[in-house]
Amino acid sequence: MNKNLQFRINELKRTLNVIITTPLGIIGLLIVFILIISTIIAPLIAPYSPFEADFENSLESPNLNHLFGTDTLGRDIFSRVIYGSRYSLSAGLIVVSVAVIIGSIVGLVAGYPGGRKGAWLMRITDMFLAFPTFVLAIGLAANLGPSFVNSMIAISIVYWPKYARLVYGQALSIKENQYVKYAQVLRENNTRIRLRHIFPNSLAALLVQATLDFGDAILFFAALSFVGLGAQPPAPDWGAMVSTARNYINIAWWMAFFPGLAIFFVVLGFNLIGDSLRDALDPSLRRLKISKLTWLGKLGDHLLVKEK
Amino acid sequence: MTNKLLEIENLKLNFNDYMGTVEVLDKISFSLNKNSWLGLVGESGCGKSVTAFTILRLLPESAEIKNGDILFKEANILAKTEKEMQKIRGKEISMIFQEPQSALDPSMRIGAHITETIRAHRKINRKEVKLQALDILEKVEISNPRYYLNRYPHELSGGMNQRVCIALALVNDPSLLIADEFTTSLDVTIQKRILELVLEIQKLNKMSVLFITHDLALAHECCDYIVVMYAGQIVEKGRADKVLSSPAHPYTKALLNSIPGISKDVKRLQSIDGVVPNLIKPPAGCRFHTRCKHKIPNICDKLFPKVRHLDDGHQAWCHLL
Amino acid sequence: MKYWILKRLLLLLIVLWGITTIVFIINSVVPRDPAIAMYGSFADEEDIERFNERWGLDKPVWRRYYEFYYYILQGDLGTSVRTERPVIVEIKNTFPATFELATVSIMISFIIGVPLGIFSALKRNKIPDHVTRFLSLIGVSTPNFWLGLLILLVFYFYLGGVGPGRISSAELEPIKITGLYLLDSILSLNWRSFIDSLQHIIYPAVALGFFGLGIVTRMIRSSMLDVIRKDYIKAARARGLSLVGVIWRHAIKNALNPVITSLGVLYGAYLSGAIIIEIIFAWPGLGSFAYNSIIKADSPGILGYVFVIAIFYSFVNLIVDAIYRLLDPRIGFVEV
After folding, report:
1. What domains are defined for chain C?
2. What is the mean pLDDT of residues A300-304?
3. What's the pTM value of the predicted model, to 2 decimals?
4. Interface contact B18, partner A, CB < 8 A
């Protein structure tokens, strides 16, 4: 079993390799890299404090002193945008991680040993999917109270069913494999089988989906913040910044433009990575050499849920 | 007025792929007479289907005809415009395929398929079209055709679908039918019946059939002439009974040896060692030399053999003759 | 087929029960005190008590659950704490506007997206394809509120187009037949009203529909590429059909199938995303109502919003599922 896991880790490494060689993938990685860096070293690159008000210089259009201009309180927008990366990145990370964890647990429990109990669990999960996601998140976040943490909870609750379904589907096909049957013969208990065999083998599909969803999650959080349910002012969160800038759009366009632009670029970056990842796993691409095609094809096969 | 319906002369075809230039067809020459049945025989990948698509001019964009002529009813196919080809396809030359169910649009009823094919080539009113559709379904031995007109392809069995495809191919009374492995995916019991059906129709309509197959036994059943292909080249051709009873080329011999029952003195089934060569850099000289047991070093791997004329139109390309 | 409809409706009822229960649970978990939100942090004890009593917030949970269903089945979604009118009335008044907006946006996404996707697939890997793919990538990466604000800025302020809202003045409002201005103005042959409504709806609809445009284009492109590779396409050409004819009659029909299912999801996304666009463009729809409810912590209002959208969404999915089965003869009505 360990060899199997090792094999798949190697396959993942090679997939990463392919992303790096695609031009759009490189751009995506670059953007995300910049995002992560600016999150970490924000205090170093931001010329001003994001909270420091300076009423004399309020509502200045972009100039050399303030690259992105200033807002109604005279705060430097460039600095606020840089600090805002922290909110977006952490939002994406937290939401996707929590949703993946909860979803995996539910999916594993429902998928193995499966059967009718599992199917019923999935039916309940599907009920969550009967809601349009944003509306449900609004309902949850509005009632929990507007705050960053509460929006994280709300979005995670809305996101987990998708991963539960994915892991469930994976579990259904993985449990037909030989090594699972051996484990059953050896009387390993359910939890052990789930953790040692089923989950690691669904990891690949899970990670691909999570990566593809990262950009979406950030967009989702930004929208919630815009409606007033996520990060609250005066926090330099991009969505919240656009929200407050709404009323001044015609006199200070830069207040809304630059935070929104930041959201756009970041989401674009993640989507580019996601796209080249998806292309890399498409076994029908003829532009790669045959040797790469065969193992990509195998990887692609493993990632597709097999219909019985 | 010649007796030749189809003449292919010295056809050379390449595919320009990302991986390089694939020399798919080389020096392909053969002709097909009216009211006769020619078998194009060879392994998978030797270029038989590609030849068929070249005749119909349905090649992918990466294809490049380097050389050669294809004369159909004494007119050069390769010089025709797309519009002219559309008049020929489905009317003068028809084609049936290996997988009948894939060849039909799953969202369209059988009747609609037939109607579409008829109206693509002739102007007739609805009533007449329906009558002809029922008529052609009866000709391919589908009983109760009225019922099947309104069915979808997935509601029919493989054999029924193949009959439908044959109906579609014949409804406009073509002079040439290209049959690309059309029995391969059918049950053995049905295979024979379908083959006999096409044989009957061929004799009735005095149609010519270009039968593509890898199965020499089937070829033996119905072909007047046989062309044996290997790796994009013709290695032997001639009258069917001649080629199959006294094969000249080592490849043909090997093929016959790998079939039980046709060859006379066979004690064990023999397979052919090796694999089909990569056509991006095809082997020099005779392309079969990499697998030939009787290869003459320095000749077979350097020079392409000149044609050897054996008796009565029987030709082979081999240094050993 | 009738059997299937019955089965599906039964399933729908179960789902609706699930939805309403979830909505109720959301409602019960209310750390945020609406009384304080209403009166501000300086409200005194008496006011809060009176408030809670009036709105029934002091009763135990299971009693409220029972009453919840009791009222819902009568069509009573409670009374808005903010406007003091029945929630159901507010929703009835504002829903047509949102419905109209979402529908026009879907139309934009599909009317532009489908041909674009087909075009992109046919010119695969050539310049038009790359441009289209790039545009759709931009489409799914752009935050719709940002796009909405930019459109607002350019077309409303800089270029001096129309004003905010659905119509320029009350006089231009068409006679109320369906509540959908575009439809009503056509039905009453009021061309001025139609033009004005159109001018007002086009900007928010584009802002809302841009995201879906990207999705639809990509999906159609992928579906077309799959279909073009199929054997029956080649077989059709071998029967003498022209390339255009084959694409039109065979490829497109089969490529459209998987896209129909996404229609339902997209509709839900637009109904949800409408709240953002309505805020920006001052569109008097359900979204604006929801936003105002959020600001004022109007629980019944928020709940009514979630409830109505969820139910509508379920019905849309049912209809989409039926259409899908109708179009694809391979999938009958037997399976659920």
Report:
1. 89-287 (1.10.3720.10)
2. 47
3. 0.79
4. yes
